[in-house]
Amino acid sequence: MPMIDVAGLAVHYRLDGPEDAPVLVLSNSLGTTLDMWRPQLAAFSRRFRLLRYDSRGHGETTVPPGPYAIGQMAGDLLGLLDALGFDRVHFCGLSMGGMVGQSLALRAPERLDRLLLCNTAAVIGPPEAWDRRAAAVEAGGMAAVAPVVERWFTADFLRRFPDDVAPFAAMLRDTPPKGYVGCCHAIREHDLRFLVSAISTRTMVIAGTHDVATPPGDGRFLAGAIPGAIYVELPAAHLSNVEAAGPFTRAVLAFLNG
Ligand SMILES: O=C(O)CC1=CCC(=O)O1
């Protein structure tokens, strides 16, 4: 389990794939870890130097006192890239990870080759919902948000593939409560609706037809606002890289290889 110090934050990361291949960074969603990308691991690491990491407050990365901010999380990633000596990368983030990608693209476009914003939005509201969620975890620990997993997959997928869902329920359960709450605040405060049109990186937006957390309208908004962005919609709920793993992997590879 490689760890690296990024300005006092001990970041847990994994590198796979050929050392001389272009770097592809994968950034996780709220309540998951770098293991959320397991369905893509084999295909992506054949073609790319794959960098997966646990966002602050998640997995094995340090849990600093909150609240956190998405801009700060983009700074964590820039620090990680500097520490590993990666000047320019492709970036793919899902949900909270996609918010980090938006922030990164506005702050350091020179570090990005292509950008994939998956099941994410310029804003995920309402703010009170994030306050309620944070308060529930502060009072009752991660058990209080266990039903959130039902938002990540369709009812059909939950019923038919319990073995695929179980690791995600475990990731959520094992997320440090303070880290989860810190990230709830970060998501609550993220609103780039009036800024994403300044993103100049070549971008693909992926949405899930059945996603209730970041519905297709959110993805269409991003794709409409970011100049030249491509929009792809997959038959999935929120974790489209799991529920529609094959089409997701193919869409990403086609975009990055095109
Ligand atoms: O947990 C959810 O409700 C879905 C979600 C929103 C931001 C994120 O990363 O996941």
TrEMBL record:
<dbReference type="Pfam" id="PF00561">
    <property type="entry name" value="Abhydrolase_1"/>
</dbReference>
<dbReference type="GO" id="GO:0042952">
    <property type="term" value="P:beta-ketoadipate pathway"/>
</dbReference>
<dbReference type="InterPro" id="IPR026968">
    <property type="entry name" value="PcaD/CatD"/>
</dbReference>
<protein>
    <submittedName>
        <fullName>3-oxoadipate enol-lactonase</fullName>
    </submittedName>
</protein>
<dbReference type="GO" id="GO:0047570">
    <property type="term" value="F:3-oxoadipate enol-lactonase activity"/>
</dbReference>
<feature type="domain" description="AB hydrolase-1">
    <location>
        <begin position="22"/>
        <end position="244"/>
    </location>
</feature>
<dbReference type="InterPro" id="IPR029058">
    <property type="entry name" value="AB_hydrolase_fold"/>
</dbReference>
<dbReference type="InterPro" id="IPR050471">
    <property type="entry name" value="AB_hydrolase"/>
</dbReference>
<dbReference type="InterPro" id="IPR000073">
    <property type="entry name" value="AB_hydrolase_1"/>
</dbReference>
